[in-house]
Structures
1.
Amino acid sequence: MELSEKQYQRIAALLPTQRGNVKIENRTLLNALIYRCENGCKWRALPKSFGNWHVIYMRFSRWSENGVLERVYTALAADGLLDRRVYALDSTAIKVHPDAQGALKKTVRKR
């Protein structure tokens, strides 16, 4: 899924203005974030068509710290454009040896 021009215009006012020598547009960055969420890939595995993965990650990190993504999410939720039932978390349980978890080790030696 990619943002259409109409969808992007709806949230463009909530995004920071681009200044200086910016190689990746905000719309492309948002499409990269959507791609990453849909596919669950690592940052380094983003397709080259989005641009340099590190630039995307750094801007994502700044936007997260500054509350930009939260404002976008809140605005989309207020408009009724988000279905919160879609989101799910997945985890994997791996059995680990007790010593790997920091358990106390036996120090008494048998003779």
2.
Amino acid sequence: MVPIQNLYKETEDKMKKALGTVTRELGEIRGGRASPAFVEHVTVDYYGAATPLKQVAAVTAPEPNLVVIQPWDAKVVPEIEKALQQAGLGINPVVEGKIVRLPIPPLSGERRTELTKLVHKLAEEGRVNIRTLRRDANEHVKKLKADKQISEDDAFKAQDQVQKLTDRYIGQIDALAKSKESELHST
């Protein structure tokens, strides 16, 4: 029964990572509201090293349409501005002394539709990843059964357990996608 317990743990760990990826990708989609997650993927050239923005500055969203970046070292402001321009955000940063502001324009109806399609695509990719992990786990269970390391009852229970894991993680992905979609259309 030990190989089955390891299989559950490995499968669940991989499913958690897949869910984390979808969560991060959906967080990077700009809804109508400003969010620090919008610039989470931006890296800044900090004394010759590519460093994530959140490690060189405090990133906040004090207003629904504004992201404020306050670097801890004022000398890095020009590098932050350059990194934000090169990040492909479609927004020009505004430098005011030691602070960088990102004004978030309201979304057009056409842009909302595009972003909704992107949300659906990312969610589907996440569901496919989860189903692939289910398939791999079930194939492993079948191999254990064929090698007579587990009984037929244990194989059935294991596949049922893997299916429950799959349903749980796909449900979480669906909830994330629905939440992001409603965020896009509520503003």
